[in-house]
């Protein structure tokens, strides 16, 4: 989707906002989230995800980080392909689309497999007790540690909800759990490995650093808010 957005001429800020929010928020995850954790936490999570995405897109646009997108992404602009005066037939358009899709697949397939495989293997070997024992409410560094601990893991927003519910029930602070959820979904190592095929290392660094800071700030903020309640 990122490649398609760039090639379609959609602004870089909007593309980054989509890149951030799309893994965090989807309709299935919202339903599962609301059923498992309630409407208040669901609304908190949605608003947070949207805010992080919008602000992130704006900041990275202002820093002119679009120059760190891999060059091949800009090579073809959808809708601006040079064609003969005669309109292409459906069969010709289909051949162009298939050839183009195959060229993208050849570039990224290995990184996708490595990323998903790495995330799945780590996710299967890290017990929930690790988080509850080391990231409890008494640890002042629990939020940044939670965000860091989420980076090696890999899951979508729907899959992480049952884990989040279990962690909250075992006594972890709500803000800490939300921060870790966002980290697992948005800045996991497997996700960064996949993004490396379309983003240069410097942009990946800024992207991950921004999300790390944003999630830590949100984690502390929500811990404070829910503690007051």
The profile of the biggest β sheet is:
none
Low-confidence region ranges: 78-85
Q: What structural class results from the helix and strand content?
A: mainly alpha
Helix proportion: over 70%
Query: In what range is the share of β-strand residues?
Result: under 5%
Q: What is the string of SSEs from the N terminus onward?
A: HHHHHHHHHHH
- Extended strand count: 0
Radius of gyration: 20 Å
User: What is the distance, rounded to the nearest whole angstrom, between the alpha carbons of the first and last residues?
Assistant: 40 Å
Into how many domains do the coordinates divide? 1
Summarize model confidence as the mean pLDDT: 77
Number of helices: 11
Shape verdict: elongated
What layout of secondary structure does this protein have?
Blueprint: H1 2-7, H2 12-24, H3 27-37, H4 39-62, H5 90-125, H6 128-134, H7 142-150, H8 157-169, H9 174-186, H10 189-195, H11 201-228
Helix pairs in contact: 2-4, 3-4, 3-8, 4-11, 5-10, 7-9, 7-11, 8-9, 9-11
What does it look like?
This protein has one domain (2-82, 89-228). It starts with a helix and ends with a helix. It is elongated. The protein has 229 residues and is mostly helical. The protein has helices at residues 2-7, 12-24, 27-37, 39-62, 90-125, 128-134, 142-150, 157-169, 174-186, 189-195, 201-228. Mean pLDDT is 77; it is low at 78-85.
């Amino acid at each position: 989707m990122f490649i398609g957005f760039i090639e379609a001429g959609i602004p870089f800020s909007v593309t980054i906002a989509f890149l951030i929010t799309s893994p965090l928020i989807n309709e299935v995850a919202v339903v599962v989230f609301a059923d498992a954790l309630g409407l208040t936490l669901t609304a908190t999570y949605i608003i947070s995800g949207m805010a992080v995405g919008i602000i992130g897109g704006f900041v990275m646009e202002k820093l002119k980080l679009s120059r760190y997108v891999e060059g091949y992404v800009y090579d073809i602009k959808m809708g601006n392909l040079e064609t003969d005066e005669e309109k292409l037939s459906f069969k010709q358009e289909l051949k162009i689309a298939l050839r183009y899709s195959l060229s993208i697949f050849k570039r990224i397939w290995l990184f996708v497999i490595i990323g998903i495989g790495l995330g799945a293997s780590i996710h299967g070997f890290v017990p929930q007790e690790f988080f509850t024992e080391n990231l409890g409410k008494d640890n002042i560094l629990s939020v940044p540690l939670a965000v860091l601990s989420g980076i090696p893991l890999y899951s979508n927003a729907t899959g992480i909800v049952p884990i989040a519910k279990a962690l909250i029930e075992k006594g972890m602070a709500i803000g800490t759990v939300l921060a870790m959820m966002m980290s697992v979904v948005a800045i996991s190592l497997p996700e960064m490995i996949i993004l490396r095929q379309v983003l240069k290392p410097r942009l990946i660094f800024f992207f991950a650093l921004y999300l790390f800071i944003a999630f830590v700030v949100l984690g502390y903020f929500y811990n404070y808010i829910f503690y007051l309640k």
